[in-house]
Specification:
Helices cover 26% and strands 24% of the residues. The chain is an alpha+beta fold. 11% of the residues are buried. Belongs to the prokaryotic Ku family.
Length: 294
């Protein structure tokens, strides 16, 4: 198997310590099913063109420049050399500015994950010293560098045999949660309802197993393609049943597997889930998946 290609190479710098490192993509959408746009009459793939709305004619690539809209009627035109001047210079250093607790940053600020590994045999010892020190202290590093033409802040922490670096969203990119939650009223919840809800949470306790989660859309598209190739009729999707409007307490009791007319349901719920084994989230076990794969 060919070695992965690094997205970026430079030095991880902590005070006077420099360690040559390489960044590798940790998550990719390259394996997702992708469609092409086809001319239904000819069966040929179509291509996109930039068209001037006034003349109706295509604009050649060499005639295309960038524009920054001040408002609906004013546009600042920018030549490629203008944009090049705005790109910050890179010294290829991933400079650590501070060490923080691993859970100090809200995950809403996480952008993209990258694996951070030593670049070459010479860097291995320094890399392992940094990794082990961060792991023992249970801290993450906040570092900055020029990455893909922008100054980016990254959170770096120990991960397996190496380090993982998350680029962080800028503050202006993260929307305030206040708007999303403005209609969430602060009301007093009845104790028996809360007891039932806790019971449901306990009975659903599990562990995260990413292999147990299936991309149903990808699977459905693959099945559709196979049916098309074999000339089989496509299965008609069943219409979802309309959701029933039920009393909240009845829904909680039903979810907890109790009779809705049992007045002692909350008390039974409180202690009935203490010794239930945890199951992997996703709805299928590793053993079952192994048989399926075989």
């Amino acid at each position: 198997m060919a070695s992965p290609r690094a997205n970026w190479k430079g030095s991880l710098t902590i005070a006077d310590l420099n360690c040559p490192v390489a960044l590798y993509t940790a998550a990719s959408t390259a394996e997702r099913i992708a469609f092409h746009t086809i001319n239904a009459k000819t069966g040929n793939r179509v291509r996109r063109e930039f068209v001037d709305p006034s003349t109706g004619k295509p604009v050649a690539r060499e005639q295309q420049i960038k524009g920054y809209a001040l408002d609906d009627s004013h546009m600042v035109l920018l030549e490629p050399e203008d944009i090049a001047k705005a790109v910050p210079e890179s010294d290829k250093r991933l400079t650590v500015e501070a060490f923080i607790a691993c859970d100090d940053i809200d995950t809403v600020f996480f952008d993209r994950p990258y694996y951070l590994a030593p670049a070459g045999e010479v860097a291995r010892e320094a890399f392992l010293v940094i990794r082990d020190a961060m792991r023992e202290e249970k801290v993450a590093a906040l570092a900055r560098t020029v990455l893909f033409k922008r100054v980016r802040t990254l959170m770096i922490r120990a991960h397996g045999e190496g380090l993982i670096a998350h680029t962080l969203n800028y503050d202006y990119e993260v929307r305030s949660a206040a708007t999303a939650f403005e209609d969430v009223a602060d009301i007093k919840i009845k104790k028996d309802m809360l007891d039932l809800a806790r019971h449901i949470v306990e009975t659903k306790a599990g562990t995260f197993d990413p292999a147990a989660f299936d991309d149903r859309y990808e699977a459905a598209v693959a099945e559709m393609v196979r049916a098309k190739l074999s000339g089989k009729p496509l299965a008609r999707r069943k219409d979802p049943k309309p959701a029933k409007v039920v009393d909240l307490m009845e829904a909680l009791r039903a979810s907890a597997g109790m009779k809705t007319d049992d007045p002692a349901a909350p008390k039974k719920a409180a202690g009935s889930a203490a010794k239930r084994p945890r199951k992997a989230a996703g709805g299928s076990s590793r053993k079952a998946r192994g048989k399926k794969a075989a």
